[in-house]
Design brief:
about 230 residues, binds S-adenosylmethionine, alpha/beta, Rossmann fold, seven-stranded mixed β-sheet, about 30% helix
Length: about 230
């Protein structure tokens, strides 16, 4: 029997999936119009996500189109069929394979040159952080690279369990509320956390609540390279 806390995390993650399924049609209106957003796109251009790219939690495909400027092909995974339908319409005729799957149980069927993670890492609870990064490792070729873009933005009314909790509540336009995970990662802490798991990912802040990260597995592999910075 799995511990009660684990089952509670599962329930929260199911509610998060339900939120994005219900929100899909309105998701594009929910973008954060805050300073720093444009820096993410510029950073991705500079990163040049060449080769075969895996996009995790692709949503309505906003980043998929950007990735296609550099890649030979994209595989885009998301739990929401509604989001995937919007994304598929946006990139019709281009080399994109869409997969509907829960990223907490999904197993990749091949490896990629680049894994792109847009506005998803902040929705991964602390309890699943390590296993999520082991999935990312399983998705990458030997010298594969990772790019993360995300934000640490939470409004006071979302913080139903207070600022120290990563559980928040959001509302869709018809008023229905859902609990979600939103971890307000701070770039330096995130970089250290990833370093402890054997990743070499430089995380950079922007002028606003956004941050981006780029890097790869540390040479010695996960778990074998310890970050000694304090
Ligand atoms: C904040 S949106 C990000 C979408 C897109 N990457 C972007 O930046 O516009 C989060 C996405 O995660 C997806 N999602 C939520 N839970 C998921 C899960 N367990 N497995 C896969 N995708 C999930 C949602 O359907 C939604 O499309």
């Amino acid at each position: 029997m799995r511990p009660a806390e684990d089952r509670e995390v599962d329930r929260l993650l199911d509610e998060q999936v339900a939120y994005y399924r219900a929100l899909a049609a309105d998701h594009l209106d929910q973008g954060l119009d805050l300073p720093g957003g444009s820096e993410l796109a510029e950073a991705l251009e500079a990163f040049k996500p060449a080769g075969s790219v895996l996009e995790l939690a692709c949503g309505p495909g906003v980043w998929t189109s950007r990735l296609l400027r550099h890649t030979t092909d994209v595989t885009a995974v998301d739990a929401s069929p509604q989001m995937l339908a919007i994304a598929a319409a946006r990139v019709a005729g281009q080399p994109v394979r869409f997969i509907q799957a829960d990223l907490f149980t999904w197993k990749p069927d091949r490896r990629y040159d680049v894994v792109f993670i847009g506005f998803w890492l902040s929705h991964v609870p602390a309890e699943r952080f390590e296993s999520f990064w082991s999935l990312v490792a399983d998705c990458l070729k030997a010298r594969g690279r990772v790019f993360i873009a995300d934000d640490a933005y939470r409004t006071p009314d979302e913080l139903i369990e207070g600022p120290s909790s990563s559980t928040i509540r959001r509302r869709i336009p018809d008023g229905t509320t859902f609990r979600l995970v939103k971890v307000p990662h701070q770039p330096a802490d995130l970089e250290r956390q990833l370093g402890r798991l054997g990743w070499h990912i430089k995380v950079t802040s922007t002028a606003g609540p956004f941050y981006w990260g780029a890097g790869s597995r540390a040479a010695a592999g996960p778990g074998t390279q310890r970050d000694t910075r304090t």
